[in-house]
Write a structure and sequence with these properties.
Order of helices and strands: EHEEHHEH
Number of helices: 4
Strand order of the largest sheet: 2-3-1-4
Largest sheet: 4 strands, antiparallel
Helix content: 40-55%
Number of strands: 4
Structural class: alpha+beta
Strand content: 25-35%
Number of domains: 1
Shape: globular
Oligomer: single chain
CATH architecture: 2-Layer Sandwich
Distance between the termini: 25 Å
């Protein structure tokens, strides 16, 4: 399994646009075979930082999703929403793997 962690710098005056962007991507990632864990928006503290987490069974499935999203009309509409509203100033993407809890005893010393 691969989990993608996105950190967004957003325009706080465009939070509603970013929320719509997030709603669209939750449905799209799930439709493409991933599991979206949600968007996490500013509450207290920084007003311009948001996060998203989603997983795919493996890196190959994630790469297929990325390739397919380029030609998918709903994905392109979501990208266009972000471009048009400028709700996202920048983002960082990280790839994470879960700790294998099942073999914890085999690796302990």
């Amino acid at each position: 399994m691969i989990t993608i962690h996105l950190k967004y710098e957003i325009d706080p005056d465009r939070i509603e646009d970013f929320e719509e962007y997030g709603r669209r991507w939750v449905a799209l990632v799930n439709r493409f075979g991933g599991t979206h864990h949600g968007y996490f928006l500013p509450s207290e503290g920084d007003s311009d930082i948001a996060y998203a987490l989603f997983s795919f069974p493996g890196f190959a499935e994630y790469e297929r999703y990325r390739a397919d999203s380029v030609t998918d009309p709903e994905c392109q509409a979501a990208f266009e929403l972000a471009r048009r509203t400028r709700c996202i100033r920048r983002y960082e993407r990280r790839f994470l793997r879960p700790l294998d809890q099942g073999n914890a005893d085999a690796h302990s010393h």
